[in-house]
Amino acid sequence: MTTILTINPGSTSTKVGLFDNDTALFTEKVAHAADKLAFYEGLSEQLPYRRDCILEALGAHDVDLAKIDAFVGRGGGLLPVDGGTYAVNSTMLSHAMKAANGVIHPANLGSQLAHEFALFADPSHPRPAFVVNPPDTDELCDCARMTGIKGVYRHVHLHALNLKETAIRHAASLGRQYEECNFVVCHVGGGTSVSAHRKGKMVDGNDIVGGEGPMTPTRCGAMPVVEILDLIEEGRSVKEVRKMCMKTGGFTDLLGTSDAMAVQQRAELGDAEAKRAWDAMLYQVCKEIGAMACVLGGEVDGIVLGGGMVHSNELVDRIIANCGWIAPVTAYPGEFELEAMAAGALRVLKGEEVAKEYTGIPVWQGF
């Protein structure tokens, strides 16, 4: 029996899961009071409060931390890395605390919480702590990095954890290894990632932090640069425009709501504005899928869909209608993030993989 605790911090809650090998013993969404979180100025200052909330939840399940073999946190705040499972070290903790990649996100707390629990379980013999395929996973091919401005290169932030786990599971359903397949893999939710996976490497995808890709319920998606410059010249602040890339764009700006299912229902009931926004979002997702199929030279073993919005049958049907000619489309509604973290740690604990070292040196440093 190998017991693994997984920790996935979100904006107002932290998802935790206890696994025996790859079987979930339980999962729980631990809520955090908004007024408590607002009390802390910096993200890392929330750590003791979140830790204590999680400890209380674990206590309700009679979890003995001393009997847990490994702790896994959602990665975040790191400089670009190759995909895989990384042992938490002092460099990683330092980078997560200061958001070395410039992105302030609750995921940055993942490695810190895993480290805290590993020490808490047995201070004299700390358990191993890991992160798996953090959002800063960067396996881009050279052509995907280039832009038309000298010295400016593309970097990606994607739902790497769920994208890779969904691809691994889909490959297994085909009786194959992930490293043998070419997939276009999408995570469609509050943020949408569309990525090309060639033989186990995520060689291209949209930067969900940088404003690339389809619009989403809270993100503006790709925009012409000159239009953004016009907004700034008209008086919008750079800070305000940045927020449109992550929090206040998409349906939120167009329709005043980030509830995608509500937008779909409005569209179905004849709301022209909602239908136009819904149709445009699906159009953009399909366009990105086509682009990633071209990255793979048309050799696509499957189009794989994950994320919360994939619960919408209408969304899946629309993607099948528009992209099914490229390759078979398979939907895995929701996410496998807790399962993916447990699976990554388990591969290391079983000796199937060697845990990688986070050096703080970007995986790509220029041509």
TrEMBL record:
One of its GO terms (biological process) is acetate metabolic process. It is an enzyme of class 2 (transferase). It comes from the Bacteria. It catalyses: butanoate + ATP = butanoyl phosphate + ADP. InterPro entries: Aliphatic_acid_kin_short-chain, Aliphatic_acid_kinase_CS, ATPase_NBD, Butyrate_kin. It holds the Pfam family Acetate_kinase. It is found in: Cytoplasm. Keywords: ATP-binding, Cytoplasm, Kinase, Nucleotide-binding, Transferase. Its EC number is 2.7.2.7. Transmembrane segments: none annotated. GO terms for molecular function: acetate kinase activity; ATP binding; butyrate kinase activity. GO terms for cellular component: cytoplasm. Belongs to the acetokinase family. This is Probable butyrate kinase. It comes from Slackia equolifaciens. The lineage of its organism: Bacteria, Bacillati, Actinomycetota, Coriobacteriia, Eggerthellales.
